[in-house]
């Protein structure tokens, strides 16, 4: 029988010192990454080594001429615990042979191969745990799943909660012992923080995964968001009505890094109108233009826009309850339709009553960037780079997205001195929203206007 495709790699943890931000290069954990069918098991080998004592290189076998990937401790090297290269390398060979054997046997016997199955079976065969010692009852991640299913939040929020859970579960797989309620600590949260920073920085780990399954480099704002969602779950676990799985959340003694956002960037009114009036020969981009400009005119999130139908039009206005607030604090939003908005709706007559043809959010965002380039919306703007948190100059089309349409709606009205509570009633923001407060910053054009009027 032909072997099912799988791959084994040994990699050193890539972490940075929290204070200096310099890479940690001494006494670094050695992990085994086993990838199969777009999934990855990360397993701590039980050994650590200095980066300078590790080999990760492709070499030619002098006997066969075959190129082999060498991942092992350098000859005669000893780690901080006094363990020799021979001892550690034997362990690595044993791990590779054992995990591959487990996987192949499972496929032959038509067993469902999951990460949990592989990890448990590997530990059993290596005599690291005994079956009778396996903890009974729900695990931390079982409770995490229960929390996500029970908490009353929007579908988009649930998607984010699932993403955080998956990150935390993958992080758990890199540790010698799985995460439990008993071993949670501020130190463990800090390790998770470092994991999120470095997870996407070693492409070799994920080379066998489909591109859409590989982790992307995360901004500090994204990481802070993940930590806040994890904190919400762990604080939920401290409540007696939810089971009281935790006495105290580790976040009580852990400070989450603050999120930083630059001034919101949006289209000027004349740029929006240029887009509205542009002659676009490409039918696909013409549809995207119609959707984007309509979004600029009613200010809804894209997730709400794709749900709108003619039934949402009441007395010349769009009325809907934003999905983000539906399960948390239901707010009814009403936005009168301008003549331009009515014209855009009138261009389509879809059988299911939808206002516009359906498109996925990813394609929509990709096409918006392409659209901006076609109509030459290339004004250079200053933004805060989400990864580096440094200011940078970029053309408008590089950062164009569906959310820019929402920002254009809010920014245009705010700049026209419309009262904040009126804007918020149509955008669905709360009056104390941090995102809404960002529009209070004075934009460059207003600054130029003031100087030219009063100082020139």
Side-by-side strand order of the widest sheet: 1-2-3
* Beta-strand segment tally: 10
End-to-end C-alpha gap: 83 Å
For this structure, the CATH topology of the largest domain is hpI Integrase, Chain A
- Derived from helix and strand composition plus strand pairing, the structural class reads alpha+beta
Let me know the CATH homologous superfamily of the largest domain: Intergrase catalytic core
Walk me through what this model shows.
With 456 residues, the chain is α+β, with helices and mostly antiparallel strands. The protein has three domains: 1-134, no CATH class; 135-259, DNA polymerase, domain 1, CATH 1.10.150; 269-454, hpI Integrase, Chain A (Orthogonal Bundle), CATH 1.10.443. Helices cover 42% and strands 13% of the residues. The strands form four sheets. The protein has a three-stranded antiparallel sheet, sandwiched between helices. Strands 6-7-8 form a three-stranded antiparallel sheet. A two-stranded antiparallel sheet has the order 4-5. α4 packs across α6, α8 (283-298) crosses α14 (402-415) and α14 packs antiparallel against α15. Residues 129-135 have low confidence and may be disordered. Residues 138-238 form the Core-binding (CB) domain. This is Phage integrase SAM-like domain-containing protein. Belongs to the 'phage' integrase family. Residues 262-452 form the Tyr recombinase domain.
């Amino acid at each position: 029988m032909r072997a099912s495709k799988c791959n084994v790699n040994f990699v050193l943890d890539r972490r940075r010192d929290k204070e200096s931000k310099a890479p940690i290069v001494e006494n670094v954990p050695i992990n085994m990454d086993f990838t199969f069918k777009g999934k990855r098991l990360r397993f701590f080998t039980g050994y650590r080594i200095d980066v300078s004592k590790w080999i990760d290189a492709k070499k030619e076998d002098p006997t066969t001429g075959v190129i082999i990937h060498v991942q092992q401790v350098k000859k005669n090297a000893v780690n901080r615990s006094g363990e020799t290269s021979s001892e550690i390398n034997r362990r690595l060979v044993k791990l590779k042979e054992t995990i591959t054997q487990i996987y192949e046997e499972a496929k032959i016997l038509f067993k469902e191969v999951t990460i949990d199955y592989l990890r448990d079976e590997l530990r059993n065969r290596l005599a690291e745990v005994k079956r009778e010692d396996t903890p009974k009852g729900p695990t931390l991640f079982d409770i995490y799943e229960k929390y996500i299913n029970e908490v009353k939040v929007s579908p988009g929020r649930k998607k984010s909660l699932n993403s955080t859970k998956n990150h935390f579960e993958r992080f758990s797989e890199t540790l010698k012992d799985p995460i439990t309620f008993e071993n949670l600590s501020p130190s463990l949260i800090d390790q998770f923080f470092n994991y999120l920073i470095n997870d996407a920085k070693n492409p070799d780990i994920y080379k066998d995964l489909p591109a859409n399954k590989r982790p992307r480099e995360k901004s500090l704002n994204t990481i802070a968001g993940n930590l806040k969602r994890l904190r919400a779950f762990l604080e939920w676990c401290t409540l007696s009505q939810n089971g009281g799985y935790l006495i105290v959340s580790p976040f009580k003694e852990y400070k989450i890094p603050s999120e930083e956002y630059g001034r919101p960037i949006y289209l000027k009114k004349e740029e929006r109108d240029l887009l509205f009036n542009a002659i676009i020969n490409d039918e696909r981009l013409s549809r995207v233009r119609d959707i984007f400009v309509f979004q600029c005119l009613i200010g809804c999130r894209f997730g709400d826009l794709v749900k709108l139908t003619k039934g949402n039009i009441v007395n010349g206005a769009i009325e809907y309850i934003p999905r983000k607030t539906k399960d948390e604090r239901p707010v009814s939003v009403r936005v009168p339709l301008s003549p331009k908005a009515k014209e855009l709706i009138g261009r389509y007559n879809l059988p299911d009553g939808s206002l516009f043809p359906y498109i996925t959010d990813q394609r929509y965002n990709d096409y918006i960037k392409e659209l901006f380039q076609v109509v030459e919306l290339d004004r250079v703007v200053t933004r805060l780079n989400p990864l580096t948190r440094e200011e940078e100059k970029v053309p408008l089309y590089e950062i164009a997205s569906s959310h820019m349409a929402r920002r254009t709606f809010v920014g245009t009205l705010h700049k026209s001195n419309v009262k904040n509570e009126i804007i918020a009633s149509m955008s669905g923001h709360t009056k104390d929203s941090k995102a809404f407060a960002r529009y209070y910053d004075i934009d460059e054009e207003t600054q130029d206007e003031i100087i030219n009027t009063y100082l020139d």
